[in-house]
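Encode chain A's predicted structure.
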Amino acid sequence: MTDLRVTFGLCVKAHRRRLDLTQQQLADQAGLSLDTVAKIESGSVGASFATIDKLTKIFR
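Encoded structure for chain A:
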């Protein structure tokens, strides 16, 4: 499970950078805290389906 979290976090980080967003900007757009975005990107926590849905809408 940890490997999946790390892989997902790296994908979130790559997409965020592709859009030239800071973690704070992504957090604001997704309605998340900066801490949550940082933890998702580092793979230390997983994301709920609702959070994944919010992120995918931003990354389109």
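The CA atoms of residues 2 and 28 lie 26 Å apart.
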